[in-house]
Amino acid sequence: MTADVTAHQPPFRDPQLSFAKRADDLLGRLTPDERIAMLHQFGPAVARLGVAAFRTGQEALHGVAWTGPATVFPQAVGLGASWNEDLVRRVGEAVSREARAMRAHDDRIGLNVWAPTVNLLRNPLWGRGEEGYSEDPGLTAAIAVAYTRGLRGDHPHYWRTAPVLKHWLAHNNETDRATSSASVRPRVLHEYDLRAFRAAVEAGAVAGVMPAYNLVNGRPNHLSPYLREELRTWTQQELLVCSDAGAPSNLVDAEHYFDTHEEATAAALLAGVDSFTDHGTDASTIVARVRAALDQGLIGEPVIDAAVRRQLHVRLALGEFDPDLDPHAHVTDFDTPAHRRLAQEAAEQAAVLLKNDGLLPLDPAAEPRIAVVGPLADECKLDWYSGTLIRSSTPLDGLRERFGPQRVTYAEGADRVRLRCAAGALYVPADDAPTEVRGAEGALDPALLTGRTDLPPLTVDAAAEGTEFALTDWGGGVLTLRAPDARYLSVADDGFVRASADQPGGWVVQETFRLEPHGSGHVLKHIATGGYVSVAADGVKVADEGEIFSVDVVEDGQEAVARVAAAADVVIVVGGNDPHINGRETEDRVTLALPDHQERLWRAARAANPRTALVLVSSYPYAVPEAATELPALVWTAHGGQAAGTALARVLAGDVSPAGRLPQTWYAADSDLPGLLDYDIIGSRQTYLYYDGTPLFPFGHGLSYSSFTYADVSAAVEGDAVRVALTVTNTGSVAADEVTQLYVRALEARVPRPSRELAGHRRVHLAPGAERRLEFEVPLSALGFWDVAHGRWTVDAGRYEFLAGASSTDIRGTATVRIDAEAPVARPVMSAGLAAADYDEQRGTRIVDRSKVSGDAVAPVSGDGTGELVFRDCGFGAGAAEVSVTVSAAAPGAVTLTLADGSPLASLEVPATGGPYAYEVLRAAIEVSGVQEIRAELRGPIRLAEINFTA
User: Fold this and answer.
1) Which residue ranges does the record assign to the CBM6 domain (predicted)?
2) pTM of the model as a whole
């Protein structure tokens, strides 16, 4: 505290007062300029009040990230695969303790952590699928609640860290992510996307949310009316809304939603954004925009005050103003033995046994000769949101440790090549620089892994044999080239090519290339810059035109794999992805297929030795139907963090019976997927909830080294819930975890409902012969759906079947209950009309923004095309004599209304109205009565907001 603060403490420093009173007191002491300055991510100190600088944002998805060495836990999708809330809560506790411990040494470490990501894994081609937990909203919510509780801590007043959920709302594409709009119908919004956020917020361990880059229903998420209409109605707690990086500027620069940044900034504040992450650490631009918006009367001071007040609540909860009372102020738990054990336990619980025809587990007592092959066999990969590894374990490390180094052989399977051009062979010159640059506690300094210029560039010499590079094809022709000293070829800002990167990485990956046929050879394209590898007098660099190279194969990777496979008793092929290549933030995947090179590797291994298992270490699912048919065993695990190799070896050896379960559907082919930008899971039959086909591996799938039976499934309505009970028994010979899954389906649904929906789950450990009676309490509200006819959550009367089993398709027992409820009534169209977005079905339309502030309208997908909306069970009573449509049009169009049998009701020509938000009301005489189905055809560049009827 600075010297100019008097001995008499102001109320904001009085711990006896409520956070609300303290926040109001401090807010009242801040000048208008000081308040405005706090709206930027990096809020400055207020020295005269003894208030320190504050930053929002610290990445902590599966460990403290971007700040150097930390314990690295499995990727978020791997934590989701554990189906274990207790485990995930403990991981959250460890991460938050390390954040506190790191902050004790470096006040740049933030305690407002931006985690977890709760966007649902709707489409497996989404590049950021590794960041989410599941395609199911219930499972995602359960894991998110657990992680946020761990991050928050269990003190009643002071939070260990303050978690912010990402990314609000309906965000599943990196392609055009700053400009694309997700068309999200009300049922999908309420039944799917909002549910993942709501449970975590209601649990009380969430400090706020971060809006996504994309638009929803034509409106940028940073202006989402649902921040006000939904999020802030779920809790009495103040919630902080932090913008995503650069998104405030996108409102003008990329999305062109506003003409000026002052308008955009004001609109974001009015929508509920409280902290602007823009222009890095330089707050001046945002501060100037807020001041200008205030001067122009676009916002008033109360809007700024509300945003600052929410920030102050977070700072108070983090104990900033009560250092002597904060129970977390002196936490030192960093890289402890307990955290190391937890990282291993999490990696073990994340492993999913997809198939096993008896090959696994391997028996260490039999002393098998094991060949470990593949591009990830000796890798411990990190992703964009990882911390720096303090320690690591690869599959090769783990298997050698478990089975003995003399019994494990290795072949990476990469082709060993030399590249030659007319001037000579490409080679890496000797240098005196260190091969690694180390930082604190011996960890690699992440700032020096790529972009190094302290090493000499590659060169070409006609007399030299050339350097032998390990060439790995990661799919789609995307290559990495690694020198014998294990450093990857990389391109720095000066354009020179060097063997300088410890791993591919960075916001823009500089280590990927593509060989393109050219004449009698190939040119080597550098993917990040789009340039080509060329030879200059001062070294090899990237230029507009490249050298023509021949590729001399010194060793064929398939042959090397076949050689070690033939000499082994069993082969473990370890394939998958590098999390920085072909699918990550900013880059969606283009296919579910395993890279061709990896397909060839497992086939070569199997041809040499039928006792071959494929282990996929990846951020996302693959379509591997032939491997699933031809190989005796398949295992999947997300990138498992620092203990990945040890954990995998223990699973393969049977020290741990695998009990991970798939958190998302594995499809058999790309053709099973809808378009990446199709967010209507109901209409396009997406995810396990609606998918009508046969998946390669279903949601919830995962095998065990033991066996389990289910018996005595019962269900009964008790008050406002259904109590379901069942008995699960371990009938195998080994102790193991079983993930019991409970699903429900409506047997008499009047609208499209999920074929099954997860209603509960429990991961339990059972000794051989042991049984456990499990009970699930399912709220009746969980059986409901969003009734678009009446704009409310509804539970219909009828029979509901509860299905208990080991996956969404492996059902072992069922029980049925009947729910009593009011009979449905027709849509009250005479009093409430029809909101266009409240359709039952649609064809060729998209939902758009009715205004820049709130509301929806519907437009044809194509501006010069047509679309159709269907509204069922419209109740007209004694009859309607007039219809009116509220519509805007950029150019002339039409709205035609018909009944279900095609009988015409009204046809209205729509003139150009002067813009998308310039609505007019058009009327026509009609004759209709009773209960009818109304169909509305939209033609041309129009926006239909609503249809109303009068007698």
Assistant:
1) 832-950
2) 0.96
